[in-house]
Amino acid sequence: MQLVRQKGNKSQQGHRYAAGPRGRFGVAVAALLVAALGTACGSGQSGPDRPAKEKAAEAGAAGALSAAEKAKAAQQARIVAAKKWGLRKTPLTAPPAPKEKPEIHTRDGFEVEDQEEYPNVFTTVPTEDKVVFLTIDDGSEKDPEFLKMMQELKIPYTAFLSDYVVRDNYPYFKKMQDAGVTLNNHTLNHRYMPGLSYEQQREEICGQQDTIQKQFGKRPTLFRPPYGNYNQDTLRAAKSCGIKAVPLWNAEAFTNRMDYREWDRDLHPGDIILTHFRGKEDWKGTMPDMIRHVMKTVTDKGYAVARLEDYL
Ligand SMILES: [Zn+2]
Question: Which is a Pfam family this sequence falls into (predicted)?
Fold first, then answer.
């Protein structure tokens, strides 16, 4: 019931805005501009080309207005979605994707021997933008409400899928992909990588590359080892399977708390947040509960969630 009422409000506001005083103001400005132009070039006010000029100026002003209106409408939709999904604050909007991608290095202490030959392992993306990145692992919980929530709130995230919990419902993740989410590699069976031989690790990683390519039409470029555990063979195998980067995480989100890697127990610009596709049988809450908690933390600290792929 509440849902329907909010939707009604949203479209009414949108309509009111489009036909509102600013629209008329825009036309008035356009008319003044045309009048000034007419005087400056000395052509007669009633010249045959005047209506065309007027039209062009009006079209220009209307174009500029509609861009502003679009941004306003998007923000309005976000406010409505935040209310609908029980977020106390509206999520902040991330800045545009950086024109130049940051130069990423493997985090100190996270290197393997000859690290420079292998994909980089990092927990934070170097940036001064006040953004964090949301990554969601495994895939056992397939909650349709979660897909709806993220789409309506326009919160970007990146998925790291492990086939053994995904294969019973590929269409769920296809929907996720269709909504703009990148599906990445978290191995076939979620084994502890350092306990496996190079060949076994390669099967786990390349096998998942093949599966994602077959099911979703795109070969991942990002890989995250189960539990964040890896050795040199893992990175060597990942590279041979076509992996370009190995993003780990600097904070982990649950339905009721956030765990931090750093001593200051805080978020930092560019931090990667890990969470999981889990449901009520795994933790005390639903996926939307978890997102509400993440977004409360992130927004209270003044961060926006940005798209990881925009920075890599
Ligand atoms: Zn995992």
Answer: Polysacc_deac_1
264 CA from centroid of ligand 1 (Å): 25
CB 248 within 8 A of CB 222: no
285: closest CA among 254, 253, 251?
Answer: 254
Question: Cα(199)–Cα(202) distance, rounded to whole angstroms?
Answer: 5
Environment of ion ligand 1 (residues, CB < 5 A): 137-138, 226
178 alpha carbon to ligand 1 midpoint, in Å?
A: 23
Q: Helices 170-178 and 144-153 meet at what angle, rounded to 10?
A: 10
Burial class (CB in 10 A: 0-12, 13-18, 19+), 13: middle
Find out whether 292 and 87 touch, Cβ atoms under 8 Å. Answer: yes
pLDDT digits (tens, 9 = 90+) for 270-288: 999 999 999 998 888 999 9
CA of 21 to the centre of ligand 1 (A): 53
pLDDT in tens, 9-42: 333 333 333 333 333 334 443 433 433 333 333 3
CATH architecture of 115-311: Alpha-Beta Barrel (3.20)
The alpha carbon of residue 277 and the mean position of all alpha carbons in its chain are separated, in whole angstroms, by 16
